[in-house]
Specification:
Methyltransferase, Cobalt-precorrin-4 Transmethylase, Domain 2, five-stranded mixed β-sheet, binds S-adenosylmethionine, 2 domains, 33% helix, five-stranded parallel β-sheet, 227 residues, 8 helices, alpha/beta, Cobalt-precorrin-4 Transmethylase, domain 1, 23% strand
Length: 227
């Protein structure tokens, strides 16, 4: 049994009770250092395998070997597995040689939606924190804004950060008047910047930042004129 569990972002309060039970009952808990640190208060006798970008393939091979030896293994993911976590999930499944279970967590995008009060129905989520060709995702971001939707964007350290996202969009004819917010270190030492897309260009933020670009006009709620 091996399960990939969303934990955080940033704080144990944002781990589901089901996830906490699986971690507490596991023989092996693995993940990136920063994410394992979030669940560390739940660790007692578990074997802990921490990793970074450079050694993740090698470390996951070790976790897969323990899984195949019959150990109950958990791999913890930052936030929700299903937003900007699928490439790491693919690495886990490649190491194991088969599909694995996932348990959803709470994404930084959800925490941002709560802080900034935006409705999922009217918002598109995009991540640039991924390997591979970003061109289709960039085009999609421009189209989302043209369609009058909000966008919640995970930038890519360090070549497509919020300021670069703004520069890209402005260069594609998107209005500089869109309201934008950058939230850093959600659930920890939170910081917020608010302004327009035009003002965002050239600004710098940490790698723990997530960007909201609001539609130029809020969508009708659908309740106007209710009888
Ligand atoms: C590889 S993505 C993983 C996202 C994660 N799966 C989620 O659902 O939040 C990592 C990026 O998510 C964003 N992120 C994660 N936790 C955050 C937090 N507490 N505050 C702000 N941004 C965060 C940052 O942009 C970070 O570089």
């Amino acid at each position: 049994m091996i399960t990939c569990i969303g934990a955080g972002p940033g704080h144990l309060d944002f781990l589901t009770r089901g996830g906490a039970d699986l971690i507490a009952g596991a023989d092996v808990v693995a993940g990136f250092d920063a994410v394992v640190d979030v669940v560390r208060p739940l660790l007692t006798t578990q074997t802990v395998v921490t990793m970074g970008y450079r050694d993740q393939v090698e470390k996951l091979a070790g976790v897969a070997a323990l899984h195949h030896a019959g150990k109950r293994c958990v791999v913890v993911f930052m936030g929700d597995v299903h937003f900007s976590g699928f490439q790491f999930l693919e690495r886990v499944e490649t190491a194991c040689g088969h599909p694995v279970h996932t348990l959803p967590g709470i994404s930084s995008a959800q925490v941002l939606a709560s802080r900034a009060r935006v409705c999922f129905d009217e918002t598109t989520f995009l991540t640039f924190h991924r390997r591979g060709d970003m061109a289709p995702f960039k085009a999609h971001l421009r189209d989302v804004l043209a369609a009058g939707r909000n966008a919640i964007v995970i930038p890519r350290p360090w070549d497509f950060m919020p300021g670069d996202v703004a520069a890209f969009l402005l260069g594609r004819g998107v209005s500089s008047a869109h309201r934008a917010e950058v939230w850093e270190n959600l659930t920890r030492a939170e910081a917020t910047w608010t302004g327009t897309l035009g003002e965002l260009e050239g600004r710098t933020f940490s790698d723990m930042s997530i960007l909201l670009i609001r539609a130029l006009r809020p969508m009708p709620t659908g309740l106007e004129g209710e009888i």
